[in-house]
Structures are given as C-alpha cells and as structure tokens.
Specification:
alpha+beta, 6 strands
C-alpha cells in the first residue's frame, strides 16, 4: 500500500512539474513574441500553392503567416484568406496583397504599397463596419501580379495563340504559298532587270543631274534679266513717266484756266442771250414793217405819181350806156 501511494505521489509531482514547465514556456513565448493582428484578403483568382501556415511578407520581409483558407460563401468566385501579421507591420492605406508563386510549388502572400503618412487599415464603427469588414477584421485589397497574373491570363493567352496559329495556317495554305513563291520570282526577275539596266539608269541619272544644273543656270539668267529689266525701268521709263506726269499737270492747269475763263464770261453770255437777242429780234421786226411801208409808198408813186401821196386817189370815170 505504501509503495503504490509513493508511486501516485511521484506521478502527481511529475505532472505538476510538467504543467508548470508548459505554462512557463508559454509565458516566455508571450514575453519574447510580439502581438499579432488579423486581416482578411479576398482573392478572385486561384490560390494554388497557398496553405495554412504559409509565409506572409511585407516588401519581402517575413511579417506573419496564413491562418486559414476558405471559399467565400456569399460569392464562391472569391477565396478568403485570413492572415496574422506582427503588430509592428505598417499595414497602411494603399497596402495591397498579391500571391507570389515559386517553381517549388509553394506560394506566399506578399504585402506592399503602403503610403507614407497614411492611416492604418482598420474597421470603421457603426453600420459601415459590416460592409467594409464583413467578418469583423480589416480587409486588405488585392492586386494581380507575378506568376499569379501570368497564370490568370494564361487561358486568354493560349486562346490568342490558338487563333494566331489558325490564321497563320490559313495564310500558309498551298494556294497562298504558290502566290508568295510567284511574288518572290517576280521580285527576283525585277531585281535582275534592274541590274541589267544599271548602266542605263546611271546615264539617266547623269542626264537628270545635267538637266537640273541647266535649269539652275536658266533660273540665274532669268534673275539677272529681271534685275536688268528693273534697271531699265528705273533709268528710262521712270524719267519718261515723270515727264508724262508733268504734261498731265500742265494740261490740268490749262483746263482749270479755261474753266475759270468760261466762268467769268458766263454772266455776259447770259445777259446777251436774255436782253440783246430779244432787242435784235424786235429791230428786225421793225425793219420788216418799215420795208413793207416803203414798198407800199413806192407802189403808190408808181401808180399815181407823187400827187397820190398827198391826196385821195381819183375815182375812175363812169360812162353810162
């Protein structure tokens, strides 16, 4: 009985000591370790190579680990990744998360892009927290990059490569190949013809250069002729034009003098036309009357003599039957 009681006592002491050691170890770990904060990341892409316990880095510096991975039930297109990072990691506004793959098949969550002086990513208070932090922890936005971006765009890339291959196959059909061969043959014949015509082409180019030179000389001669014409105009035509201008000026002055003389004679002409001409007309009429009277007197003298001027004309004798 005593032996069994001693064994139970020893076992109890050992268990107590082990518990104390475990508690001491946890306490030491808490003292030596830093506090951590949890964040959610919603990836709209495959998370191949990512698992619970995968490393989380900030700008390449190990800063935490992945705590859990699950599909987001409200929208299965998203994969929710819960991470925990050290409390001193600067998860500020502008920080984004990407999945960095490797050739070994393991992936890590990479954080970067924090803006200096920005506020930390936290959950707001009130009703807005449900939309911003649906599971009660802050959400870090994502961006596609690295191998993940290549893998996500791989289907589109393969589709485009397939389309390009089909088009190239259509272009390289037997008919198109024959056409391309014909074009190459024609090009070769044209090249040979140009090579054979090389001397003629060179002669043509030489003649062209001579023609261009002659055209330049003709242009210079035309310029000299234009200068000579300008000189003639300046030396001969301009004096003649000056004399002509003087003659025109003299004629203008003469015309002005004649206009002045006519203006001076105009009152006399007016008086002559209004007074003298009517008087002359009256004189002519009086002369006509006088001439008629003299004609009548001469006729009376001829018929009756001078006595007819002072007496009545004698009546003719009447003889009765």
């Amino acid at each position: 009985m005593e032996t069994r009681s001693n064994h139970v006592l020893v076992g109890a002491v050992v268990l107590i000591l082990l518990a104390l050691v475990a508690l001491f170890t946890v306490w030491i770990a808490r003292i030596g370790g830093a506090e951590e904060r949890d964040y959610d990341i919603f990836f709209r892409q495959a998370v191949d190579g990512l698992a619970k316990g995968s490393s989380v880095t900030f700008s390449g510096v190990p800063s935490g680990q992945v705590k859990s991975i699950s599909l987001w039930k409200p929208d299965p297109q998203y994969v929710r990744v819960r991470i925990s990072v050290n409390n001193d990691t600067p998860i500020l506004r502008g920080t984004t998360a990407t999945i960095q793959g490797s050739f070994t098949g393991t992936s890590t969550v990479s954080l970067d892009g924090a803006i200096k002086g920005a506020q930390p990513i936290t959950c707001p208070e009130g009703d807005a927290a449900k939309s911003v932090c649906p599971l009660g922890v802050p959400v870090i936005p994502t961006k596609t990059g690295g191998i993940g971006a290549i893998l996500n765009s791989a289907p589109q890339l393969l589709e485009r490569l397939s389309t390009l291959t089909e088009r190239l196959t259509g272009m390289l059909s037997d008919r198109n190949q024959a056409s391309i061969a014909g074009i190459l043959d024609n090009t070769n014949r044209l090249t040979d013809a140009l090579a054979d015509r090389g001397p003629e082409i060179a002669a043509t180019l030489a003649q062209t250069r001579i023609a261009i030179q002659q055209a330049g000389n003709a242009a210079e001669q035309i310029g000299a002729l234009a200068q000579t014409t300008n000189g003639v105009l300046a030396n001969d035509v301009q004096p003649a034009m000056a004399n002509l201008n003087k003659a025109i000026t003299s004629a203008q002055q003469s015309a002005d003098t004649l206009n002045s003389a006519i203006g001076d004679a105009r009152p006399g002409l007016t008086t002559f036309s209004k007074q003298t001409i009517p008087q002359v007309n009256q004189l002519v009429r009086d002369l006509r009357v006088t001439a008629s009277s003299l004609k009548s007197i001469s006729e009376r003298v001829e018929q009756g003599g001078a006595s007819s001027l002072v007496g009545q004309p004698a009546l003719p004798d009447y003889k009765g039957k």
